[in-house]
Design brief:
9 helices; 245 residues; alpha/beta; 7-stranded parallel beta sheet; 49% helix
């Protein structure tokens, strides 16, 4: 049975992915900041069919030990097949433009904590000669826009790191998946006005699990975001800088 580590497990997308793995009878190791929500999620996943569910509390805004976290998961699960990294924040762009602490905080969680965990996971899976690493990035990382370029830059740095990691780990039998969701209706985006381009977390989770199974490299979710971002990236900079995006 699949042994799955989910980091940021209480996020809407990760919860939906966890429910799909639970239905397969997977062994799960859940990591999140909110211990109470984590315990509630664990009980739900056990009811839904997970063979075992372990939990660990971690606040990525504080100092944390990525080696201890990964080794704790590996020991509890007796191995690792899949690691899904789903934690992150959507920083207030205006606040980041005037508050360096807010700017650093966004990169600390969205980028630096991810890179630390990925470095440990890469070494563990390379040594094992197998495994799948999947990371939730964003279409926002494809091109900086005035409305959210701090968030987008934190995801763009992550994407380049994942590309290099994929290149490194391919010959060792480890897959690295970059996930690029578009607009998703989650508590993080509750204040946003919704439209036809918005997707539900379960739709994104279905695409993630399918992409991991298929050993994909990069996936846009839903699929049409690949076309949208292709167009946005093709806009000449001299035109793009004049747009209100």
């Amino acid at each position: 049975m699949t042994k799955v580590l989910l980091i940021g497990a209480t996020s809407a997308i990760a919860q939906a992915a966890a429910r799909r793995y639970a239905a397969r009878g997977a062994h799960l190791y859940l990591v999140a900041r909110d211990a109470e929500r984590l315990a509630t999620l664990a009980r739900d996943l056990e009811i839904r069919g997970a063979t075992s569910v372990h939990t660990a509390h971690c606040d990525f805004a504080q100092d944390f030990d990525p080696t201890a976290l990964v080794e704790g998961a590996r020991a509890a699960l007796e191995g690792l097949d899949v690691a899904l990294l789903a934690h992150g924040v959507l920083p207030d762009q205006d606040a980041c433009e005037h508050d360096l602490a807010a700017l650093r905080g966004a990169f600390e969680i969205n980028t630096l904590s991810m890179l630390a965990l990925l470095t440990v996971l890469a070494n563990v899976m390379q040594a094992a000669g197998r495994g799948a690493i999947a990371v939730i990035g964003s279409v926002a990382g494809d091109r900086g826009r005035q409305s959210n370029y701090v968030y987008g830059a934190s995801k763009a740095a992550l994407e380049v790191f994942l590309s290099g990691l994929r290149n490194r780990l391919y010959k060792h039998g480890v897959t690295v998946l970059t996930i690029k969701p578009g607009f998703v209706d989650t508590p993080m985006t509750a204040a946003f006005k919704k439209g036809p381009l918005w997707a539900q977390p379960d739709t994104i989770a279905a695409g993630i699990v399918e992409a991991i199974d298929a050993q994909r490299d990069v996936v846009y979710l839903p699929w049409f975001w690949r076309m949208i971002m292709m167009i946005i990236r093709a806009i000449p900079e001299r035109v793009f800088k004049r747009l209100s995006l």
